[in-house]
Amino acid sequence: MRGKPSQVGDTRTAPNGYHYTNTHQGWRLTHHILAEQIIGRPLREDERVEFKDKDRTNLSADNLNVVKKGESTKARTRARLTARIQELQAQLRELDD
To answer: What's the fold here for domain 11-96?
Structure first.
């Protein structure tokens, strides 16, 4: 036996930094539980929770944001492409000088 059995309400931190809480339904991501309490309903399949400051250890309510899956990915892709366009435009200006 490796230790005492987990009880409902017990929490663990995984090596990747995510916090898990034991519930009656099994282990769940703690930030999901907190976000559901904030919005007053279960998360939908098309939603995810992000940490505004990117710090997985900061579980404060004002640091959690529920977004549709894929929204932040689109924003990052748009930002990357915009930066690349600006870089290419600068290179074209150098050629024209």
So the answer is: Homing Intron 3 (I-Ppo) Encoded Endonuclease; Chain A (3.90.75)
pLDDT digit string (tens) for 35-90? 999 999 999 999 999 999 999 999 999 999 999 887 667 777 888 899 999 999 99
Domain boundaries along the sequence of the chain:
11-96
State the number of CA atoms in the 13 A half-sphere of 63 facing the CB: 10
Query: Closest Cα partner for 51 from 9, 18, 22, 11?
Result: 18
User: CA 17 to CA 79: how far, in whole Å?
Assistant: 26
Length of the chain: 97
Q: Hunting for tokens 């200006």 — which residue is that?
A: 93
* Rounded (10°) CA dihedral 43, 48, 49, 55: 150
| Residue 86 DSSP one-character state | H
Which residues contact residue 25 at a Cβ distance below 8 angstroms, ignoring those fewer than 6 apart?
A: none
